[in-house]
Amino acid sequence: MRWLREDAIRPWQYRSWIFPTDPGFAEKAGRILDLYEGRWEGKLLHPGDCIISADEKPSIQARRRTVESMPPAAGVPRGQRVEHTYKRGGALTYLAAWDVRRGQVFGRSEPKGGIEPFDRLVYQVMVKEPYASAPRVFWIVDNGSSHRGQAAIDRLQGRWSNLILVHTPLHASWLNQIEIFFSIVQRKVLTPNDFDSLAAVARRTMSSNACTTRSPSRSGGISPAKSSTSGWTDSPPATALSSRLPHDGDGTYERQH
Fold first, then answer.
1. 8 Å CB contact between 229 and 106
2. Phi first, then psi: what are they for 95, rounded to 5°?
3. If we measure between CA atoms, which residue out of 177, 185, 112, 183 comes closest to residue 138?
4. Are 256 and 228 in contact (CB under 8 A)?
5. SS3 15
6. Angle (CA) 232 175 139, round 5°
7. Contact status, residue 227 vs residue 209, Cβ threshold 8 Å
8. For residue 231, what are the β-bridge partners?
9. Pick the CATH number of 20-66+85-256 from 3.10.180.10, 3.30.420.10, 3.30.565.10, 1.10.287.3510
10. What's the CA gap between 116 and 121, in Å, rounded?
11. Count of CA atoms in the C-beta half-sphere (13 A) of 129
12. What is the pLDDT of residues 142-179, one digit of tens each?
């Protein structure tokens, strides 16, 4: 590999980009950046307003390694060793909502994504304080199928009177702060993806909520913040939600920390 590193031409190294195709890119991006700065339509946000950044992380696989992984050894300069060969144990979707102003994460695991699982995440957040009684709760989402376009606006804002759905421009989900959280989960929680079951995947993703959630303290530092999570077990109980949503008996349940 030394001669490859020394070569002047390195075709395996590249940088990619994407040209904005959304004609309203600047306006839509500006609205989100204004929210992060505490403004909406040119005015300062009310102290009680909330900003939620939400999305789904689909197809998280449970890969059962054929040989047990070897953890890093003390005093030995090597990392963890993981067998390349594995058996597939299925996949699930992790949905999360990040409170931009309070530094709190709400998460849940679902067998798959879609409108109903996303609506359950919204319910999980909106029935709790301070969101239930907040003047406005801004939900920043991308253009995924479970919350796309005017149909999603009508559905969610018709269900929750204080909810305002804010879409990122097309191909600009990187403006959504929840993607930063998902990146941390991927690198520090899911890698190297060595799980015996989907239940183990769900427990690991749920534990990331408490580990990565912090809230500002009065002293200026950070202190642990409460996290609200939902896990997926091998034998999930059937939890009835309110009449706003269908019965939640499809492999999910809420757990409070």
1. yes
2. -110, 135
3. 177
4. yes
5. coil
6. 55
7. yes
8. 253
9. 3.30.420.10
10. 9
11. 1
12. 999 999 999 999 999 999 999 999 999 999 999 999 99
**74-95 burial, b if ≥16 CB within 10 A, otherwise e?**
eeeeeeeebeeebeebeebbbb
Contact 172, 25 (CB under 8 A): yes
Tokens of 230: 């939902």
CA angle 88, 56, 83 (to 5 degrees): 25
Q: What is the pLDDT of residue 152?
A: 98
Instruction: Measure the CA–CA gap between 220 and 7, rounded to whole angstroms.
Output: 50
Whose tokens are 């994504």? That residue is 113
The per-residue b/e assignment along 101-123, b for 16 or more CB within 10 angstroms, e otherwise, is bbebbbbbbbeebeeebbbbbbb
Length of the chain: 257
CA distance 247 to 198: 22
Which candidate, 109, 121, 124, places its Cα nearest to that of 59? 109
Instruction: Give me the sign of the Cα torsion angle 223, 226, 231, 236.
Output: positive
Question: Count of alpha carbons within 13 Å of 205, Cβ hemisphere only?
Answer: 35
Instruction: Tell me the backbone φ, ψ of residue 105, rounded to 5 degrees.
Output: -115, 135
pLDDT at 7 over 80: no
Most confident of 9-18, 211-220, 225-234: 9-18
